[in-house]
């Protein structure tokens, strides 16, 4: 193989060119295009390849085509067409005659052939581009064209893209990986390279082959010091950039190139604004074609950046030629522009580069409230972390915003530490001596209360303290979250009408103020209240209307909250496929910043859906994973939900060993009905554990004890006005009657429940929390005791299907474990990063490969693991 290292993955990727009419190899000079073509050609013993380098000697299209045809004739037996003599003179021939003759020759070739045109960027005339474009469009199926160029050819590729006949390998694909860097280093220097040094080289060069080689040569000559100071102003690189890039540009582009390099990222509108132009989009397009290492951002279409090394070189040139004050003015103008278009992080980036501390702090005070309202707490924490402690602890607004963000991002230890420091700060002392002290104390109490609520269930929150904070909520906007705490506490305490009232008020106030995330909590509480009241249809209508009118950014915390509520309402309607799809879209977006209610709800419903679909082992692993999350805090309510669901699944499976184990582990025999209310407040954790105890007794055929537990439980829930919870308890009593053989009593009780609650009261959740209820319904329908309309039976068709006997026990765990062992070393690295929660772009940056390569690996991983999507792969890897 020629070249210093063999690039086997790229060779394999380029070998896919036999499936496409055109393969484009696009990257700046020094990226290794020609070397890759050499290696591919040497590795392609079974392929017939004809290659022409369109360098300086082939400056005319006639000469290039003549050379191509001569190489074809040397390689394969072809029809001796007149075209072989057409290019002896220098006349400009008719394009259609040339193209038709070439197609005739290519059609006569009896085998598959690859035509390789290297250095295609030298094709600079419209006449030449037109001929190659027409030649491409009529290419026979067994002829494949491979084109290597520094910039995209100016031919229409849209049709090829639509027909999936274009394979593009670009500079991102050609970036060196860490493993390839290690191999290259052995060839270039033979000296050991530490992992940190490898990452440093790759970060600075972005995997650009020529830059990596120069960095390694510097390392060989000067050691570690060379890497510490390696940038685009290294003599070899600076000389290359000056002659190959900067001086090769027309004068009309040079100044734009210089000034735009001052910006980390930019778009055409920003450049028009800064430079007083109206044609920046056209200039950017020209720069792209001059291959100035300009990269379009994948995550921000229409925005661009320069390769870090060339940016180093050009910025230094700007600093040499332009006064620093003018650069500061550019950054200030950029900050103001970015503020207007809501690019807030970029606004602060430019504000910091003005080197004007007062100006930057003024931007912070504008930007932070916007991020607070949208719930972008990580952005706030990142910016605050850059500030000196003395600044943060002496600015009341910034300090409270920082503490608030830490709490809502579930960084509880950091939040407590910072609040303690804030209480003892000089600012606190001075404020407490002034009239502003009362408001300051109120804000501190509110933050401590919020911290307590996130770390624990709400039973321990003092009602008087909470009422006081809500009454004082007019003092400042962020205390409006007190209404959410109050509504949530009333929901947990079973005061559903009051919880609904407070949540609606919170929704109104927070919506007016633009607190998108906090408003979404109010929506979630309202939907849950409707569900607990037994008004599932109202919950469905509410969330459906909300989804139709709000456009929350996908993956945002507000989007997660509202779609978690949507999981509940889809499930209650027995739309199980839709509910599962939502769960799988939510799982990758759940993070430590989500409230526990959301995390627990998604995991519980996903486990139940997996169980229904027969994936019993995975359903159990999901519950185990949820339990491991809950033990990190004080969450008895959510833990009880996990215990109840685990016991329910064990009952359905008739797994008596698991039933006994769960009963002993959680000491269910100690839970008593009189613990269900505390000073009139409903204790959900007791309700859930009592039901788990009923499941345990039923599984062990201890029916008398189950009845004795259910009777007082029903009375208590009725007294607390917990409509849906009471119906679940009463339905479980019906099932106990039925399974012990008292069929007549069971049917009579079910008939009475249908009369009291109506069939609309029996949602999917009622059936699931009452294992066996569907069997009693089917019996009652057959006996004529309860009439089940066609619509009702249609909605719950899976529950009433005669062919369904319990839950299918599908054990795919062993097969999946074997599949994990079949992953290659590279696929295992990609999979580990995927499971850690990284996006495709982040995985690519970590491994220094292109996004297209990452997607290719992921497709193979999904097939080997026998999963259908990203969410399933992530969940599988976290067990």
The low-confidence runs, each spanning 5 or more residues with pLDDT under 50, are 802-815
Counting helices, strands and paired strands, the structural category is mainly alpha
Number of helices: 49
Strand content is under 5%
Whole-number radius of gyration? 34 Å
Choose one word for the global shape.
globular
Report the count of strand segments: 10
Percent of residues in helices: 55-70%
Mean pLDDT: 83
The description of the largest β-sheet is: 5 strands, parallel
Strand line-up of the largest beta sheet? 2-3-4-1-5
| Intertermini distance | 43 Å
Word description of this protein:
The protein is mostly helical. The chain has 49 helices and ten strands. Strands 2-3-4-1-5 form a five-stranded parallel β-sheet, with helices on both faces. A three-stranded antiparallel β-sheet has the order 6-8-7. Helix 23 packs antiparallel against helix 25 (437-455), helix 31 (557-572) packs antiparallel against helix 32 (576-586) and helix 46 (825-835) packs across helix 48. It is globular.
Q: Concise description?
A:
By secondary structure, the chain is mainly α. It is 65% helix and 5% strand.
Secondary structure blueprint with pairings:
Blueprint: H1 8-14, E1 22-26, H2 33-43, E2 49-53, H3 61-75, H4 95-107, E3 113-118, H5 126-137, E4 143-149, H6 158-162, E5 166-170, H7 171-174, H8 178-188, H9 195-205, H10 209-222, H11 224-228, H12 235-246, H13 251-260, E6 266-267, H14 268-275, H15 280-289, E7 294-296, E8 303-306, H16 308-321, H17 324-340, H18 344-353, H19 357-374, H20 377-385, H21 389-392, H22 396-408, H23 412-423, H24 426-432, H25 437-455, H26 463-471, H27 481-492, H28 496-513, H29 516-532, H30 536-549, H31 557-572, H32 576-586, H33 596-612, H34 616-630, H35 636-653, H36 656-665, E9 677-678, E10 681-682, H37 684-699, H38 703-719, H39 723-739, H40 743-757, H41 764-768, H42 773-783, H43 790-795, H44 797-800, H45 813-821, H46 825-835, H47 840-847, H48 851-865, H49 870-877
Parallel strand pairs: 1-4, 1-5, 2-3, 3-4
Antiparallel strand pairs: 6-8, 7-8, 9-10
């Amino acid at each position: 193989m020629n070249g210093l290292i063999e690039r086997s993955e790229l060779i394999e990727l380029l070998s896919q060119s036999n499936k496409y009419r055109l393969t484009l190899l696009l990257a700046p000079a020094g990226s290794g295009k020609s070397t890759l073509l050499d290696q591919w050609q040497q590795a392609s013993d079974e392929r017939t390849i004809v290659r022409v380098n369109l360098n300086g000697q082939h400056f005319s299209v006639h000469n290039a085509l003549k050379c191509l045809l001569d190489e074809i004739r040397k390689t394969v037996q072809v029809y001796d067409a007149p075209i072989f003599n057409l290019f002896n003179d220098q006349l400009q021939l008719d394009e259609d005659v040339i193209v038709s003759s070439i197609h005739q020759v290519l059609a006569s070739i009896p085998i598959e052939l690859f035509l390789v045109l290297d250095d295609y960027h030298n094709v600079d005339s419209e006449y030449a581009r037109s001929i190659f474009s027409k030649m491409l469009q009529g290419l026979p199926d067994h002829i494949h064209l491979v084109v290597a160029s520094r910039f995209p050819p100016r031919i229409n590729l849209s049709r090829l893209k639509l027909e999936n006949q274009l394979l593009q390998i670009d500079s991102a694909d050609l970036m060196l990986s860490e493993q390839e860097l290690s191999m290259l280093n052995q060839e270039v220097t033979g000296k050991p390279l530490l992992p940190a040094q490898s990452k440093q080289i790759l970060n600075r060069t972005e995997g650009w082959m020529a830059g990596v080689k120069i960095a390694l040569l510097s390392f060989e000559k000067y050691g570690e010091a060379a890497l510490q100071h390696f940038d685009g102003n290294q003599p070899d690189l600076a000389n290359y950039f000056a002659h190959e890039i900067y001086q090769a540009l027309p004068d009309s582009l040079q100044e734009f190139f210089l000034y735009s390099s001052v910006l980390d990222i930019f778009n055409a509108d920003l450049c028009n604004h800064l430079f007083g132009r109206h044609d920046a989009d056209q200039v950017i397009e020209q720069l792209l074609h001059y291959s100035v290492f300009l990269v379009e951002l994948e995550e921000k279409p229409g925005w661009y950046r320069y390769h870090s090394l060339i940016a180093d070189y050009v910025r230094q040139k700007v600093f040499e030629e332009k006064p620093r004050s003018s650069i500061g003015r550019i950054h200030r103008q950029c900050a103001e522009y970015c503020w207007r278009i809501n690019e807030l992080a970029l606004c602060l980036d430019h504000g910091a580069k003005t080197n004007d501390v007062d100006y930057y702090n003024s931007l912070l005070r504008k930007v932070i409230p916007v991020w607070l309202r949208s719930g972008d707490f990580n952005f706030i924490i990142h910016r605050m972390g850059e500030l000196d402690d003395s600044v943060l602890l002496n600015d009341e607004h910034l300090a409270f915003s920082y503490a608030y963000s830490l709490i809502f991002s579930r960084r509880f230890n950091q939040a407590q530490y910072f609040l303690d420091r804030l209480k003892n700060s000089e600012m606190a002392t001075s404020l407490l001596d002034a009239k502003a002290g009362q408001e300051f104390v109120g804000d501190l109490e509110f933050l401590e209360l919020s911290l307590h609520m996130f770390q624990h269930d709400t039973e321990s929150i003092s009602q008087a303290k909470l009422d006081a904070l809500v009454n004082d909520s007019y003092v400042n906007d962020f205390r409006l979250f007190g209404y959410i705490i109050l509504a949530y506490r009333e929901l947990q305490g079973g005061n559903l009408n009051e919880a609904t009232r407070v949540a609606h008020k919170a929704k109104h106030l927070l919506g007016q103020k633009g607190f998108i995330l906090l408003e979404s909590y109010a929506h979630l509480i309202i939907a849950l209240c409707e569900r607990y009241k037994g008004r599932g249809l109202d919950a469905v209508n509410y969330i459906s209307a909300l989804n139709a009118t709000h456009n929350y950014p996908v993956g945002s915390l507000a989007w997660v909250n509202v779609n978690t509520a949507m999981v509940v309402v889809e499930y209650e309607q027995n739309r199980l496929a839709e509910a599962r799809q939502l769960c799988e879209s939510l799982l990758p977006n759940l993070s430590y910043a989500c409230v526990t209610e959301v995390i627990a709800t998604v995991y519980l419903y996903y486990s139940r859906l997996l169980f229904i679909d027969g994936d019993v082992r995975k359903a159990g692993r999901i519950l185990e994973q949820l339990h491991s999350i809950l033990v990190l805090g004080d969450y008895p309510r959510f833990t009880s939900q996990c215990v109840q669901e685990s016991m329910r699944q064990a009952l359905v499976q008739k797994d008596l060993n698991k039933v006994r184990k769960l009963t002993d582990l959680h000491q269910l025999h100690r839970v008593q009905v009189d613990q269900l209310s505390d000073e009139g407040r409903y204790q959900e954790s007791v309700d859930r554990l009592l039901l788990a105890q009923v499941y345990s007794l039923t599984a062990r055929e201890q029916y008398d004890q189950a009845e004795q537990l259910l009777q007082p439980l029903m009375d208590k829930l009725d007294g607390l006005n917990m409509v849906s919870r009471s119906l679940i308890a009463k339905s479980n009593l019906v099932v106990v009657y039925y399974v012990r053989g008292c069929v007549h009593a069971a049917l009579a009780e079910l008939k009475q429940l249908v009369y009291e609650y109506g069939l609309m009261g029996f949602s999917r959740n009622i059936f699931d929390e009452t294992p066996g209820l569907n069997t009693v319904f089917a019996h009652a329908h057959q006996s004529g005791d309860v009439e089940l309309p066609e619509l009702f039976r249609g909605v719950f068709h899976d529950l009433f299907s005669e062919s369904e006997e319990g839950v299918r026990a599908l054990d795919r765990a062993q097969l999946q474990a074997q599949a994990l062992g079949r992953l290659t070393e590279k696929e295992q690295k990609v999979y580990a990063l995927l499971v850690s929660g990284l996006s495709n772009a982040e995985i690519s940056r970590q491994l220094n490969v292109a996004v297209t390569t990452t997607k290719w690996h992921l497709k193979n991983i999904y097939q080997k693991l026998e999963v259908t999507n990203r969410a399933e792969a992530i969940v599988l890897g976290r067990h």
